[in-house]
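Colleagues,

For the teaching module next term, I've prepared a clean inverse folding example: a structure given as tokens, and then the sequence designed for it. I'd like students to try predicting residues themselves before seeing the answer, so please don't circulate the second half yet.
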């Protein structure tokens, strides 16, 4: 009978454990639901944060685009403000030139030109001379080639316009005349003899 009691005891133990499992399962379900609610709450918060960040980024992009447009539109404002007094001086020179002699007019023009170069240097704009240099197609534009025995071939022998650089970038090439080798016609003077 002892053996029979043992199985009955096991069955009773199993029956006693069933309610305990239901409590654990119920606690686990409540815990999981609480965790799920917390996760959903954090998801909503993160989504709200993401939407705010996205909206801020879009506003930032719009602000930068507007600032860029304004910068481009008014980029030359300081340069223009510096040039306006030169225009005033040119106008005064014209008025004065009607009653002045040639030398004072030339002196006035030189002073105005010096003003231009001073302003140019403030904005990192510099002229360069190509005279005597080897022809460089990156910096010079040849408008003519002339035979010359006094210069090496491809040497700039005359300059019709100076070149200009802006912060080490070429703004305008120098317009130049370049030497070329004198062609030997074999003593033929061209008179047909």
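(Answer key — instructors only)
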């Amino acid at each position: 009978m002892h053996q029979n009691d043992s199985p009955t005891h096991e069955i009773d133990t199993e029956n006693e454990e069933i309610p305990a499992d239901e409590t654990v399962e119920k606690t686990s379900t409540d815990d999981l639901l609480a965790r799920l609610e917390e996760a959903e709450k954090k998801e909503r918060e993160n989504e709200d944060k993401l939407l705010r960040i996205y909206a801020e980024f879009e506003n930032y992009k719009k602000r930068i685009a507007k600032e860029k447009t304004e910068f481009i539109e008014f980029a030359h404002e300081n340069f223009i403000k510096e040039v306006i007094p030169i225009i005033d001086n040119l106008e005064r020179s014209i008025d004065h030139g009607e009653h002045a002699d040639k030398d004072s007019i030339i002196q006035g023009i030189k002073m105005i030109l010096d003003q231009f170069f001073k302003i140019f240097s403030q904005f990192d704009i510099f002229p360069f001379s190509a005279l005597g240099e080897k022809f460089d197609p990156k910096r010079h534009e040849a408008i003519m080639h002339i035979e010359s025995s006094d210069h090496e071939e491809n040497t700039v022998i005359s300059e019709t316009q100076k070149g200009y650089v802006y912060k080490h970038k070429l703004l305008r090439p120098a317009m130049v005349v370049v030497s070329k080798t004198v062609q030997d016609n074999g003593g033929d003077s061209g008179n047909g003899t």
